[in-house]
TrEMBL record:
Pfam families, A to Z: DUF6328
Protein source organism: Nocardioides immobilis
Keyword vocabulary terms for this entry: Membrane, Transmembrane, Transmembrane helix
Matching InterPro entries: DUF6328
Transmembrane helix recorded as keyword: yes
Name used for this protein in its record: Sodium:proton antiporter
Keyword Transmembrane: yes
Transmembrane segments: 12-32, 44-64, 85-106, 112-137
Length: 139
C-alpha cells in the first residue's frame, strides 16, 4: 500500500505542475488587451476552461487534503483508492481542458472550423496515448 501511495504521489506531482501553470495563465487572460476582442462564445469557452482548470487542480490536489485529514488514522487503503479515483478524473479533466485550450486559441487565431478540428485531434491524441496505449499494452 505504501508503494502504491508513493507512486500515485509522483504521478500527481507531474500533473500538478502543468495544471497550476495552465490555471495561472488562464487567470491572466482577462487582463490582456486582446480579451476585449473575444466574442460571447469565445468568452463562454474561456470561462468553461477556467472552471475546468480549477476543477482539475481540485481533483489532483484532493489526495493531499485526504492525507492531511487522515494522517495516522490507519486509512491508507481508502486513501490510495480515493486518490486513484481523483488522479484518473484529474487526468481526464486535464485532457479535456487541454483540448479546450486548443479550441479557444485556434478559434481566436484562425477560426471556428480549424479550432474544432484541432481540438478533436488533440483530444484523440490524449485518449489514444493516455488510454489506448496502456489498454493495448495490458493485453
Amino acid at each position: 500500500m505504501t508503494r502504491n501511495w508513493n507512486e500515485l504521489l509522483q504521478e500527481l506531482r507531474v500533473m500538478q505542475t502543468g495544471v497550476q501553470i495552465l490555471t495561472g495563465f488562464l487567470l491572466t487572460v482577462p487582463f490582456t488587451d486582446r480579451f476585449t476582442a473575444l466574442d460571447d462564445r469565445q468568452r463562454t469557452v474561456y470561462l468553461g476552461l477556467l472552471v475546468g482548470s480549477v476543477l482539475t487542480t481540485c481533483l489532483i490536489v484532493a489526495p493531499v487534503s485526504f492525507h492531511r485529514v487522515l494522517f495516522r488514522k490507519q486509512q491508507r487503503p481508502w486513501l490510495v483508492k480515493a486518490s486513484n479515483v481523483c488522479a484518473r478524473l484529474g487526468l481526464a479533466a486535464l485532457g479535456l481542458v487541454s483540448a479546450a485550450v486548443v479550441l479557444l486559441v485556434f478559434d481566436v487565431v484562425v477560426g471556428t472550423t480549424a479550432a474544432v478540428v484541432a481540438s478533436l485531434i488533440v483530444l484523440a491524441l490524449f485518449v489514444g496515448l493516455w488510454l489506448g496505449v496502456p489498454l493495448l499494452a495490458r493485453r
